[in-house]
Design goal:
Distance between the termini: 11 Å
Mean pLDDT: 96
Oligomer: single chain
Structural class: alpha/beta
Radius of gyration: 17 Å
């Protein structure tokens, strides 16, 4: 079994889900008392959040590159970044280490393609929804049509993520708002919803909506487990 390297802390609320996912999946596949071989490094999200809103992506890249180097030195056989938004600086990982890096948008694109869907909606931070670092992979590599919410909806989704979800606050009111936005995206033709922020599945689950919900943290974790087991 290969060792999975995780860069967490963005936020730790979803990073703990990654650890749970990879261990649960290893146990399901190998049985008995098996668990995943994991090396995790975790950053201070307060620092990352501040730099994000300042637009200081170069500094964020420096931090993430340094964390990936730590994982490689610690014996990790691969790197996963346990967040969607900070994949904006993922090239800093690939330029810093020799071990493989698995992009969350690639894992998600594969899962959507395997389900045979063509048009999907992307929910996440404004950075993820409005910049092209994520959507260009889904469009160019996997041939998907990607819908994003309107500007007002994007702001609401973004604010709930930063003011509530990353702090572990799960509100029924916010859940209702998300479901209303998802319903409007379904009316626009969305065949599935990408939870393009790893905290969103803490609030919204598949049982809440009638179309497929792509839990990016779970999909990303499954990809790592598949590689770790040589599949």
């Amino acid at each position: 079994m290969k060792t999975i390297g995780l860069i967490g802390g963005m936020s730790w609320e979803s990073s703990k889900v990654y650890y749970e996912h990879v261990n649960t999946m290893i146990k399901q596949q190998l049985g008995g008392s098996h668990s995943a071989k994991v090396v995790m490094t975790s950053v201070d999200f307060g620092e990352i959040e501040k730099l994000t809103f300042e637009g200081n992506w170069n500094k964020i890249g420096d931090i993430i590159a340094n964390e990936s180097i730590k994982l490689e030195k610690a014996g990790a056989d691969m790197v996963l970044l346990c967040t969607n938004t900070i994949h904006l600086v993922s090239d800093r990982i690939t330029n810093s280490v020799a071990i493989p890096f698995f992009h969350i948008a690639d894992a998600t694109g594969e899962a959507i393609q395997n389900d045979g869907l063509q048009k999907v909606a992307l929910l996440g931070t404004k950075f993820t929804m409005e910049r092209d670092f994520y959507t260009k992979i889904l469009q160019a590599v996997y041939g998907l049509e990607v819908l994003i919410p309107n500007p007002e909806e994007r702001q609401v989704i973004h604010d709930i993520i930063y003011n509530e979800l990353v702090k572990g606050v799960l509100s029924e009111k916010s859940k209702a708002v998300y479901l209303e936005i998802i319903a409007s995206l379904e009316k626009r033709g969305a065949q599935g919803i990408i939870a393009g922020c790893t905290e969103i599945p803490l609030l919204i689950s598949q049982s809440d909506i009638s179309i497929p919900l792509f839990d990016t943290a779970k999909i990303h974790s499954a990809k790592a487990v598949s590689i770790a087991l040589g599949q």
